[in-house]
Specification:
Helix content is about 75%, strand content about 0%. By secondary structure, the chain is mainly α. It has 2 domains: about 55 residues; about 50 residues. The protein starts with a helix and ends in an 11-residue tail after the last helix.
Length: about 140
């Protein structure tokens, strides 16, 4: 209850902390940290009080001054840019991980091929392989 009344005051004086500052039930619920249906179904008296206070207001003040609007718009642009960079870096990281995996597989195959070739050369050169045991 206290959260709702505090949110009402913030919206009515034009100093929202958690919402867009519009004088609607959705903004009031967001400002109070509740779901909208809590106001429309459980706290109907507070909802009606909010509507009455909004209706009784004479002029509707500008919710945010122009400098705050510009700052908020800039922050939204910065946030979008940072998210895009994060997504790009995430994609690059996944690609690099795949490349490393392929290189590890190729390296393992190359080592096996090298060992096989060394054995073949040793057999052709007539060098005895001392690691093999002879039968009786």
């Amino acid at each position: 209850m206290r959260a709702i009344t505090d949110a009402m005051v913030r919206l009515l004086i034009g100093a929202p902390l958690h919402s867009d500052g519009k004088l609607t039930i959705v903004s009031l619920a967001t400002e109070a940290g509740l779901r909208r249906n809590k106001l429309t179904h459980k706290h109907t008296g507070l909802k009606d009080l909010f509507y009455a206070l909004v209706k009784a207001r004479t002029p509707v003040p500008n919710v945010l001054p122009d400098s705050a609007r510009a700052r908020a718009a800039k922050q939204q642009q910065d946030l979008a840019r940072v998210r895009a960079e994060r997504d790009d870096l995430r994609t690059q990281t996944q690609l690099l991980a795949r490349i490393v995996q392929v290189l590890e597989i190729e390296n393992h195959q190359l080592k096996e091929t090298t060992l096989a070739l060394e054995r073949q050369l040793a057999d052709r050169a007539g060098v005895l392989d001392l690691t093999r045991r002879r039968g009786p």
